[in-house]
Amino acid sequence: MQPAVQFYKKPLPSGLTIFNCNLERRTTPAASILTLLNVLYPNGSSNASGSFVDIGSGQGIPCLAAALSGRFSIAKGIECQPKWYESAVLLKEVYDENQDAKDACTLEFHCDDATKPAGHLEGSSCVFLNSVTFDAKFCQQLGHRIESDLAREKTAGDDIFVVSLSRRLPLPSFDLVDILRLNANGEGMYTFYVNRKANTQSTFYAITDSEIMRALRDNDLVGSLVAIARGHADERLGLSLLAALAGSEPVVRQYMCCPVLLERLETSIDSKLATLTQKALGSMVLRAMSDHPVGRSAIAKSDSLLDELLAGISTDEEHPALRANFLDIFSQLLYDSPLDRISVELNETTERLQEDNAALVSDNLREALAETIAMRRWWDGHKLEISNSR
Amino acid sequence: MVPMSRTNVVVNLAKKVLCSAGTADAVQAPLFQELISAIASSNPTPAVPRVPPSIHDDPRYPVQDQKFHNILAKSEKQYDILAQSREEYLTESNATYGYVVSLLVTIHATCSAVL
Q1: What ipTM was reported for this prediction?
Q2: Domain range for residue B5?
Q3: What domain range is A257 assigned to?
Q4: Do B82 and A38 touch (CB under 8 A)?
Q5: CATH number of the domain residue A276 falls in
Q6: CA dist A59 → A2, A63, A99, B82 (Å)
Q7: If exposure means fewest CB atoms within 10 Å of the residue's CB, which of A210, A238, A295, B33 is most exposed?
Q8: Which of B8, B25, B64 sits opposite A234 (nearest CB)?
Q9: CATH of the domain at A24
């Protein structure tokens, strides 16, 4: 053991309360991390060449548990708060004295901002975030950082997992493969969202993926079906098939390989040219796509598609059910993206519509309006209050 | 004869739709509608979070847990030492501060007496 004087030379943590609290109480307990890893790597399979990264690692408990699991060559914690980082370093120093554990996995901690491009995530096979206290903007920044850093790892032979608590991060190239309930933060059960980037065939499938959908993909039929649906003479059938297929997250990712598809959907909801049926079906496809981060990302990046959606919301001549559908799509987009360009315009439109009670002929529209405004305010930093009263 | 699974039926249906792609739409429509219905009804309902099997059933867990708590216990001792050192530092600082103040008072008193 290193002499205690080594610690005295370091800057003292600013808060003394840390010394009185149980280390495990306000973090993810080791048992939850080990349970999670058992789910991610079933049947004792391991990924000893990969690394476990904890973003917002706090006092380092999850990293220590991952290091002791024997599944990783590196367990790395990134923490921006110096006082927590200092605590984690103490844990690492004790861990390093245990030669058995040290041989199995390297434990390291960095006092850094995880949203900055520092290369901490490169080579990761499992990224963990106790994101309970992360706000929407920070989640979006982290999502972009993870997407960017792990894009280079696409050729690696193993799956990459990203696990977040309480909310799913905007990760267009990842599938949601599991939702778990585990103890965390000393307050009971929390929801763990398990996202996976597929690099190999494995037993994990997107939870939105039915057996039939997987069979269609395994037989290379989805691409051909999309092509036929896109160009079918009977638009009702074509768009209906696209909406049915869009229930699956991996299929929506496959949609992105067909850039003309978005143009086709844009035409289908054209406020001037499309018929009511076309708009209804086109909005159903977009609504199904917006359930997934990959679909939300694609819609949010298309300025012309956003303009068409906004035009549909803004006009009083549009059918209320369609406007509700468009607003639902927008509320989904706001979950991941700030949409700065049109946020002010959308704000004015939704508030005007809500004030104009005569225009609210549909409960669905009223609900959609309320949800859109709530999501936008939440994005702006307001507390999101959930109430049964209307 | 082995009955075909529902999945195989839908895959065959999709293949039929693709094969008939060049034919009149009137022929395709019933197949299309059947395929749409089969795919839409196959989409899973929204997932409910599940509680995974207990870690306590894993034979590796007791060893991992023992190692974990050994390290944690040592680390907590380090925290205690650090906390104690801070308290001693503050106590020493207070003592030093008190000494300096008393010295100043003495000097002041001495100077006052001389003057």
Answers
A1: 0.72
A2: 1-44
A3: 211-379
A4: no
A5: 1.25.10.10
A6: 19, 9, 21, 15
A7: B33
A8: B25
A9: 3.40.50.150
